[in-house]
Structure of Cellobionic acid phosphorylase:
Amino acid sequence: MIRASEDNEFYELSSPTLLPKASGFLWNEKMMIHMNCRGYAVAQFMQPEPAKYSYAPNLEAKTFMQPEQPYYAHHPGRFVYVKDEETGEVFSAPYEPVRVPADRYTFAVGKSSIVWKVECGGVLIEMSLSLPKEEAMELWRVKVTNLSQRQRKLSIYPYFTVGYMSWMNQSGEYHEELQAIVCSSITPYQKYQDYAKIKEFSDKTFLLADRKPVAWEVNQEAFEGEGGITGPSALQEEELSKGDARYETPVGVLQYRIRLAPGEEEAYRFIFGPAKNEEQVAQIREDYFIKSNVNGEDGFEAAEREYDQYIREGRGCIEISTPDPDLDQFVNHWLPRQVYYHGQTNRLTTDPQTRNFLQDHMGMSYIKPQVARESFLLALSQQKPDGSMPDGIILHKDAELKYINQVPHTDHCVWLPICLSTYLDESNDYSILEEQVPYADGSGTETVLEHIHKAMKWLAGDRDERGLNYINQGDWCDPMNMVGYKGKGVSGWLTIATAYAFKVWADICEYGGQAEIAKEYRRAAEETNEVINRYLWDGEWYARGITDDNVVFGISTDQEGRIFINPQGWSLLSGAADEEKREKLMRAVREQLETPYGVEKLAPSYTSMREDVGRVTQKHPGSAENGAVYNHAAAFYIYALYSVGEREDAYRLLRKMLPGPTMEDIVQRGQLPVFIPNYYRGAYRQFPRTAGRSSHLFNTGTVPWVYRCLIDGLFGVQGTPEGIAIRPQLPSEWSEAKVRREFRGATLQIEMKREPGVTATEVYANGVYLENGVLSDLKPGTEYKVSVKIPVSE
Amino acid sequence: MIRASEDNEFYELSSPTLLPKASGFLWNEKMMIHMNCRGYAVAQFMQPEPAKYSYAPNLEAKTFMQPEQPYYAHHPGRFVYVKDEETGEVFSAPYEPVRVPADRYTFAVGKSSIVWKVECGGVLIEMSLSLPKEEAMELWRVKVTNLSQRQRKLSIYPYFTVGYMSWMNQSGEYHEELQAIVCSSITPYQKYQDYAKIKEFSDKTFLLADRKPVAWEVNQEAFEGEGGITGPSALQEEELSKGDARYETPVGVLQYRIRLAPGEEEAYRFIFGPAKNEEQVAQIREDYFIKSNVNGEDGFEAAEREYDQYIREGRGCIEISTPDPDLDQFVNHWLPRQVYYHGQTNRLTTDPQTRNFLQDHMGMSYIKPQVARESFLLALSQQKPDGSMPDGIILHKDAELKYINQVPHTDHCVWLPICLSTYLDESNDYSILEEQVPYADGSGTETVLEHIHKAMKWLAGDRDERGLNYINQGDWCDPMNMVGYKGKGVSGWLTIATAYAFKVWADICEYGGQAEIAKEYRRAAEETNEVINRYLWDGEWYARGITDDNVVFGISTDQEGRIFINPQGWSLLSGAADEEKREKLMRAVREQLETPYGVEKLAPSYTSMREDVGRVTQKHPGSAENGAVYNHAAAFYIYALYSVGEREDAYRLLRKMLPGPTMEDIVQRGQLPVFIPNYYRGAYRQFPRTAGRSSHLFNTGTVPWVYRCLIDGLFGVQGTPEGIAIRPQLPSEWSEAKVRREFRGATLQIEMKREPGVTATEVYANGVYLENGVLSDLKPGTEYKVSVKIPVSE
């Protein structure tokens, strides 16, 4: 029912009702489209802010991407209605809107395409979606095959929702000469000052066909009639009415009437997307459907091929083969793709939150280190001379800080050394520390080293008399906005994270030739750890913070929000937790936060407002930051466990990030394992019915940390200044694993195996024993055979 | 098919498909609900800004009321599913979402209730909606009657959409002790500063029943299943699942299982609305369903009665009987109700546009003059000491100028004398001129007389060297925002309107005992009229304005926007147009602007952006301000025609504001004649298919002007300082008319009749001939019999 295809390029689902919200997504340089297995779609493109070309049926709010969005009858989608002209029977592919159960159904989410095969009453509809590399448009193929034993007379109606475009101006009509439906609108605005921007927008939506339709409809109301979207009245006519839409909701429907002998097939291609004007649509038609290149490909075919190539560039730096095939499938095929997506698109915003931007490029360090390098330098160029970082990184000259980026947060600086360290591990490019970078106010330039020193000093200075870091209106947890808005409240987690940042920065400084300064940072980390243990240790775990009114929270006496995951894991990273504390806090996490679907961010979820903590306590229990299995935080914790060698808990929790392996578990999550969502619904102990559900949001800082967990932790193939340290932490149930590691131009073929008689892990490269497991002096272009012998029980 | 009920309290429609968007609306002190004949609903309440308790299925934008809004399958609505338990057959009342054609159907829009009667397969469902006078909630009655000859086993399922409440927090559950479904949410916000406001919101939605249901469903997805909203899977079960919604889209569905003998009926009542908490819902239950008053009424019944009384207070000051029964019906029943609605609700905003606010209370002068008086004083208290008026009037301490009120317009001052004059005509309350009113900046107080002098001086000063009034970023026409944004462009209409305002103000000053000042204003009006004729007369009509670059527009050489209605009519009011010009411009209006659906605001509609005119040219051709039959402007023109005695054109155009009388015309408009919409779609000569369609927006400055057209024009029963002037201008096809006029506490029973031998109109009151038709020295509480003899041909 749910499986990887044989070539591992697709994940397949065999029913549209088993996981009704199952989906895949594609992106390119300009757009993103999230396709649901039943045909619903969410697509946006950048101009430069996110915009739509296929709209909801009403005036939808412009907002950031929301979790757990409901679908509804008139949700934007891409469908094909099929009518048997002899019987009058109608079905639709993929499934919506008619919802006729298919005889056979496949939804295959690929890396560079999404494909459906829907067989109904002897007619097979194959639909596939791909994108070009750089333009905002959808490339669709639709193939109709007669699988029955008799000739078939069919009408097929590709149906692309356009929706309610604008209250200012909306219309649509078919253009004979373009073989296209073009719908027009004006983005609503009221101030003349906005006109200069508006007039550059691609406010048209086009549906371009490679074959001439017999008829069409552009008027949604006329198409549906009293039959509605589930049984449009227009399908009862021999031909669509060739109507237009004049300040009426437009739609793109084409009709093809075909006669198919048994076994015969017909194929169609369509392009759907935004355009500035009809001339541009004409040009697209010319480029994609008319002209051919030297290989005889037309633009459409070439674009599909180029896009596939573009996506393939985003492969990761490890390929694994373990006793856990689902993990292999995800790590080898889907995880690096999701990491790459973040690094390429910056979440389709023009002002990514600083912490997100830095972590997304921490991930990009494994895939395109040059992109990561440039991104770090860009972020630092927006640092203020006092060392503080802005709440968002501006990527476009017209961009502004929006939504949550207008609320001051205090954690952005800690991510600088933490994210940079991965880049350095992977690239060994310590020259970045000497790069000259300006400050935001144009006051001058300094080296990256100085920039980060200033960031660390800012963190060291933004503290109360106890030495705890102020939280202001939020830290990593955005909606924890009332802990410290009066200027006194402090963040336990941020203080711990600062200690860790000092440690990481000390290591970088040392390798960067600044041993003395490194010592200072180590001392500062130790002092911070002492403060942490003095004020935040609650007896069994660490508190989350202390409010403006000096109330410690996230502690055993709290009824809700009693324990938070972040202070626990980060105290392992910072070194605050000694072995006794480590055992205690790990037990508390297992008992109070761990669920079948992963580890919750906090528990119990808040069920009512706590005014001295803030908005997080008003979020729905188990959703988003309020007690969800928030994978970003879970990944931190797993990373921390690996950092102290707690491989069993680490692997168990890592594995819970992926749906499965049981069907029941996958169904409860409601998602194919082609991406890690930002959260699974939590509040497992409070509301078990809904626990585990996927948010279906694939924008998340989780994925670079999961990649780090694999590289630095599970498989232990982390870069060092000398080379690479091979120190795997396989779970006890694995007797072996193979890893192909691409590193600084070399390739390591690593076989890990538990062997009787081995008492401590031994690492050999090309047969030579490696001291401490470190392979140094790697030569680019060379392949190394590495063998790791692991004790049977460790 | 479409008719007034016998008691004239309802307008009835006998099919849900004939006018699919036909609707009625109810309002009270706190809310407004717009109900569609098929069951769809748009409702909002004030807290203090407009808010919802029944939401769209997605995150909808907060916006001002939009015209021609599309309905869609999951549009908010109120329905009753009915299942025959023996046959399994399901239908829904009123019509949506199942869309089974009824055997008999009535949609009856009443003044204080909206009623449906839907008969399907021998089962009659009667639904009615009313409101309480002061609270935001809907009062629903549902009655089920077995009209068939056999016993029936039925399940009925009242279904109230709740929709996507909030991405922060949403849930719903049934409360046994309340016999209510209560859905909870938190209005989304991100800044802690907003919390103080948010926490006071009524963020819950409740559905309270007067009878205990056998089962319920609160989870929309669970209710629909694969059957969708048109055939919910849950209806196939014996009982609903009694589910809840946890961060899932909530819905309110109750199930009642009943056995009805032939002729037997069962009645239910429900209350649906917003609440702050469960305690409030419990209180509502107590007040409406449990407690009874001395008359044995419970709160629900008392509220219906009180609401009916409240609406009846809004009756007009004339009652007519003419050869045009549709006009009678509208004027006697619906027009004053719409005028009253505006005066009571101020369009459900907290910052009505100044011109709207003043005109809405011009209308209120006929209904509740005391409310109008207070409103004029409130508006003047927000005037600046330089005489200029703000773009919106702030009605609530937390209100802000929003949307279009952030764009500077230059016309607000002209409405002061114009609107005040109606109040004075009606009330003769010249004491208002002596009221002391503060200025917005707290710099001091002055009399109303001084305030309006300053407003007139501001208008006289805000002119270019030619004496033409600057338009800045707009005048009455909001989106004409680029004519003068550079500071040079002028408005032809506004200059003309200023001349008219001077004239009106001169009259008021004179009656107010300031004859000298009156002369000055008359001279200023004359001088302005000269300027108008010098710069704006285009040979056959008046231009609309002159741009920043000194380009005259709205003239014969323009391809689009060649002629605008406003400068034409207002030049009749101001006196700029002599008889020759009057004939020319009236011919131009007839030839270029008049259509079967009324007179267009401009023609031809713009089909592309004209950058020196602005946003109006980007609006959809024939929509809103771009060439619609914009009834507000049409009403100005009709009023102007009456002001110069052009009774035939005036009546013809007035009559076109109401749909009908032919069925074809009503269907093309798509609306019952229970309100005048702000526009009918125009661009009749360019896009005839859609011309005439109602915008379905009942917020419009049209209605007070239509009332003035009736009072001052058609029936000629306008107040004067001495009393009342009886000077009817009946159209030639009318041989008689009767008017009952309530005026300053007296009642006039007026019979108008064309009589052979009469050469000039003669007016008699109680048999006594009136010089100039003026009846003076009216005694409150007295009834006058007035007889008007009109020449057969005049």
